[in-house]
Amino acid sequence: MYGRLPRVPTVFGGLQRAARRRLDARAYAYVAGGAGEEATQRANRAAFDRWAIVPRVLRDVSVRDTSVELFGRRLPAPVLLGPVGALELVHPEADLAVARAAAGLGVPMVFSNQASVPMETCADAMGDSPRWFQMYWSTSDELVESLVGRAEASGCEALVVTLDTTMLGWRPRDLDLGHLPFALGKGIAQYTSDPVFRRLVEARAEAPAPVQPGASAERDRQPRPTLAAVRALVGMARAWPGPLLENLRSPLPRAAVETFLSIYSRPSITWADLAWLRSRTRLPIVLKGVLHPDDARRALDEGVDGVVVSTHGGRQVDRSIAALDALPGVVAAIGDRAPVLLDSGVRSGADALVAVALGARAVLLGRPFAWGLALAGEEGVQQVVSDVLGEFDLTLGLAGLTSVSELSPEILRRVDRWDTPTGG
């Protein structure tokens, strides 16, 4: 009646296009990009297009219950906000704006290991609202133990161990722009706020630089400082706690970036390492990046409490199996032993309903809320997530169902393709 329009588009395509107009090339590429030719990203969406909902009619759907239970917590809907790193690229309030939006809706937020705001700051903003912590397994066990302890102290209710990023994937969009946010000090706030990491940085900064043969000649060949290099140094200085001018004169900010790049992830982790982690936390452990049924079975045999079927949003392995295609096999392998979650390719409430019907306990939302953050900060995140929750509720009722427990593969039909209308 008052002629007000939504601040952000309500359909993913429009949301992404609007965010692209708002962001600079590097920020957009980092969030939008995938591995290689981005075949996995396309496969994640194509997998959803192979399923159709078959609505039923003349059922009383006037009262609906979209809630689900995860690890003893009743959630308003089977939707969590997944971990997205380096959110300062898209909005200055970054993770803090997301935390506030999540808390306002009662939706769990998974704190990113590569956050731009420390987990304690986000936890303080969330009150009693649910949150989890995503963990990349560092080469420093002491750092891993410190991060886990901080997650527990911050009220996190589960630990999400990300397994598909023990090495960064081949990401041409970022490579073509010469961009890695972590090398500029972005997305490392969980580290610079950690006492163990800070001690490692200080030790690195104090250690004498090794003298290499031909070092003098190499210095002579170094390129002259550029504006981009100066900006990078300023960015590193801003990332390190303390006054900017003091940090600009200190070796610590650059040492922090170098330390992070040297220890951030451990490609050598194996199943044997899970027992060490299990002995050091009381939190439920969820393995993220599981796509093979045998890995799902092994995870539970090793004492894990749940899995996330995920391709890391198509950012790690090009031409991987789509997450939704892998979901039924993982669900069949695990049965009722533990919850199975899904991310990668989820764009709407209808997508969430399809995934839950195929056996997921809940889905993790990623890029959609990041685009909302880019467009309108906390309000943009809240609208995007509210749109997904609202569409999920409506789709549930319009399918003739009144609760999440009624969702099953029986409400779906497999389709070869969606026909494009030619008229009318």
Describe the structure.
This protein has 424 residues and is α/β, with parallel strands linked by helices. The protein has a domain at 1-33 and 67-144 and 159-206 and 226-268 and 359-379: Alpha-Beta Barrel (TIM Barrel). The chain is 44% helix and 10% strand.
Detail the topology: elements first, then pairings:
Elements: H1 12-22, H2 25-32, H3 39-49, E1 51-53, E2 68-70, E3 73-75, E4 79-81, H4 94-105, E5 109-111, H5 119-126, E6 131-135, H6 141-153, E7 159-162, H7 172-176, H8 189-192, H9 195-206, H10 215-220, H11 227-239, H12 244-248, H13 252-263, H14 273-278, E8 285-288, H15 293-301, E9 306-309, H16 323-334, E10 340-342, H17 349-357, E11 362-365, H18 367-398, E12 412-414
Parallel strand pairs: 4-11, 5-6, 6-7, 7-8, 8-9, 9-10, 10-11
Antiparallel strand pairs: 1-12, 2-3
Helix pairs in contact: 1-18, 4-5, 4-18, 9-13, 11-13, 15-16, 17-18
